[in-house]
Specification:
Largest sheet: 7 strands, parallel
Shape: elongated
Strand content: 15-25%
Radius of gyration: 22 Å
Order of helices and strands: EHEHEHEHEEEEEEEHEHEHEEH
Bound molecules: flavin-adenine dinucleotide
CATH architecture of the largest domain: 3-Layer(aba) Sandwich
Structural class: alpha/beta
Length: about 350
C-alpha cells in the first residue's frame, strides 16, 4: 500500500611573517573568514561554507575573506576569487595534508592576524575537531551543526536543530571570534561575484608537531562518491536482520546509481561499516532521494537526513515514525519489494 504523499588572478604576492598590519589598509576592518582546504578544494561543501560566509558578511557589512589552508594551486586560487572579497593563502609544506595539530596552529596564527569576527568551516570530522579547539585558543566562542547563520548588531546568530531534530534554536554568540561549523551541503551554495584581485599569500613559520604522529591514512571505500555528496542513497536498518540483505540493497543502489548507508543500529550490529552511519552521530546527507529500508525513523536518524530532497521508506509497521517524515511510503516486507523494484528498474533502464 502506498501511503498518500506525506581566471587568472593578478597575483599580489606579499610574503611576510604574519605582521599585525595585515588588512590595515582595508576599508572594512571586520572580516568573516570562510575556510577552504587545499586538500579538498572547492567542492559542494566548500561552496556551502562560502555561501554561508557571503550571507553572514553581507548581514554584518563585513569583508568576506576566503582563506585557503594547505596546498593552493593556481587553479584553486583562481576558482576561489569568484566567491569572496579577498583571498588569503596559508600554504606550507607541513600543510600538504591534514594534521590536526599543525592545521590548528596554522589557523590560530592566521586568525590572530586577520582578527575575524567569525570563522566558518564545514561539517566534516576534521572541521568538527578543529572548531572548539580553535575557539578556545582564540578566546572566542564555538558552535556547530549550524543550519543557518545570520548577523545582527555585530553579533553572529546560529540556528541549529535541538531535541533530536524536533525543534530549532537560535543561539547568540556574544564573544568574538565566533568559530562555527555549518552543515555545508545544506547551505545555499556561494554565488559568483566580481572576481577579486585582492590576494595575500601568508608566510607561516610552522614546526613539525612531535607530539602527534600520523602513522597511517586510510581512504574510505564508499563507491565513487562521498556519502555526503551522493545524489541517491539506499539505506538499511535493523529490520533487515543481518548483513546479507545489505547485498540485495547494494544491488538496488547500483542500478539507481546510488550510495549505501545505514542506521546506527545496523552499524552497531557490525553488519556494515561504521562509516555508513547516517544521523545525529553519523553523517548528515542531502541527497535528491533517500530510500530508507527497514529503518524505524528515530529522531536521531532523521537528523541526518533532514536535508534530503525526497525521502521514501519501506517498512512493515504502518506506525513507524519514518512515515511522518517521508514523501513516499510503502508498508510492506522489504523482501517483497527490493528484488522486484530492482528488476523493474533494469527493465525501465534497458
Ligand atoms: C545519543 C544518540 C545518538 C544516536 N545517533 C544515531 C544516529 O546517528 N543514527 C541512527 O540511525 N541512530 C542513532 N541513534 C539510535 C536511534 O535512537 C535508533 O535506535 C536507531 O536509529 C534505530 O535504528 P533502526 O531504525 O535501524 O532500528 P529499529 O528502530 O529497530 O527499526 C527497525 C525497523 O525495521 C522495520 N522492519 C522489521 N522487519 C522488516 C521487514 N521485513 N521489512 C520492512 N521493515 C521491517 C521495523 O518495523 C522497524 O521500524 C542514536 C541514539 C542516541 C541515544
Amino acid at each position: 500500500m502506498w501511503l498518500a504523499p506525506a581566471a587568472q588572478v593578478e597575483n599580489k604576492v606579499i610574503a611576510f611573517r604574519l605582521l599585525p598590519t595585515f588588512y590595515k589598509g582595508s576599508s572594512l576592518t571586520s572580516v568573516v573568514v570562510s575556510c577552504i582546504f587545499g586538500w579538498t578544494g572547492i567542492d559542494r561543501a566548500a561552496l556551502g561554507v562560502l555561501g554561508a560566509g557571503q550571507r553572514l558578511s553581507r548581514d554584518l557589512a563585513y569583508k568576506h575573506v576566503g582563506l585557503i589552508v594547505g596546498p593552493a594551486s593556481d587553479a584553486l586560487i583562481a576558482e576561489a576569487t569568484k566567491f569572496s572579497d579577498s583571498i588569503a593563502v596559508a600554504d606550507h609544506p607541513l600543510l600538504d595534508s591534514y594534521h590536526s595539530e599543525t592545521t590548528l596552529t596554522a589557523l590560530t596564527e592566521v586568525c590572530k592576524q586577520l582578527n575575524p569576527k567569525a570563522v566558518l568551516l564545514g561539517n566534516d570530522t576534521y572541521c568538527q575537531e578543529l572548531v572548539p579547539r580553535l575557539a578556545h585558543r582564540l578566546g572566542g566562542s564555538a558552535a556547530g551543526d549550524a543550519l543557518k547563520l545570520s548577523g545582527r548588531n555585530e553579533t553572529v546568530l546560529v540556528t541549529r536543530s535541538v531535541y533530536g531534530g524536533k525543534a530549532q534554536a537560535t543561539i547568540k554568540l556574544s564573544r568574538a571570534p565566533a568559530i562555527l561549523w555549518v552543515r555545508a551541503r545544506a547551505q545555499e551554495p556561494a554565488q559568483q561575484q566580481a572576481l577579486t584581485t585582492d590576494l595575500t599569500r601568508l608566510t607561516l613559520t610552522l614546526e613539525p608537531n612531535t607530539k602527534i604522529k600520523l602513522v597511517d591514512r586510510q581512504t574510505e571505500m564508499q563507491g565513487t562518491a562521498r556519502l555526503e555528496d551522493a545524489r541517491v542513497i539506499v539505506s538499511g536498518g535493523r529490520g533487515l536482520g543481518g548483513s546479507e540483505p545489505f547485498t540485495q540493497l547494494r544491488a538496488l543502489a547500483e542500478i539507481m546509481g546510488g550510495q549505501m548507508a545505514a542506521s546506527r543500529a545496523a552499524c552497531d550490529a557490525g553488519w556494515v561499516p561504521a562509516e555508513w552511519q547516517v544521523g545525529q552521530t553519523g553523517k548528515k546527507v542531502s541527497p535528491q532521494l533517500y530510500l530508507a529500508i527497514a529503518i524505524s525513523g528515530a529522531s536521531q536518524h532523521i537528523m541526518g537526513i533532514a536535508d534530503a530532497k525526497t525521502i521514501a521508506a519501506i517498512n512493515l509497521d504502518p506506525d513507524a515514525p519514518i512515515f511522518q517524515h517521508c514523501q513516499f511510503g510503502l508498508v510492506e516486507d522489504y523482501r517483497q519489494v527490493v528484488g522486484p523494484l530492482r528488476e523493474k528498474l533494469i527493465e525501465l533502464l534497458a
